[in-house]
Amino acid sequence: MSDAIADAKRALRADLRERRNLMSAAARDTAESGITAQLDALLDRFGVRSMSCFLSTTTEPGTRQFVTEAVRRGIRVLLPITRADGLLDWSVATPDLDITEGMYGLPEPVGEVLGPIAVNDVDLLVIPAAAVGQDGTRLGWGRGFFDKTIGSMERCPPVYAVIYDTELLDSVPRDVHDQPVSGVVTPTRTIDLAPARR
């Protein structure tokens, strides 16, 4: 990655992190309800039976309510578990989900650990992002877990990034390893994007 791209990504992430930290609890609750409704509609649209999702941190658009409701609906939801080698293991969400703090302080499930290839059979990937550009370029938080996962899949299903409405930008800095997304889910809408091609 060139220094210019790395610097641009760092600066944008810092700005986005600060904005998220300034959100009120009420705004976060409203956003989580909106995200849940948008993701529920996405499940119906794609006829999803099995998917991956992530457990949101306190500043991310909330996904935990959605995960609980999806499990209640009988959807198989795989949740990521970070690994030291940069790959992701997975665990199936359960109705009595137990959460612990994983690497980097991220919330992760406690349960049977499935290897990285467990995600190969899902109908939909729902992933975190700091921001997404109009061309589908996703800006993550810099650790590369989801870029590696998406890049290693033989048959990648639709990939949607969960962000706040203000985080869909005209463009974001992009490097060769960055994997595009199919669309974004925000608290107020779901937008399909034409992923950038290399």
TrEMBL record:
GO terms for molecular function: 5-formyltetrahydrofolate cyclo-ligase activity. It comes from the Bacteria. The keyword Magnesium applies. Keywords: ATP-binding, Ligase, Magnesium, Metal-binding, Nucleotide-binding. It is an enzyme of class 6 (ligase). Its cofactor is Mg(2+). This is 5-formyltetrahydrofolate cyclo-ligase. It comes from Microbacterium invictum.
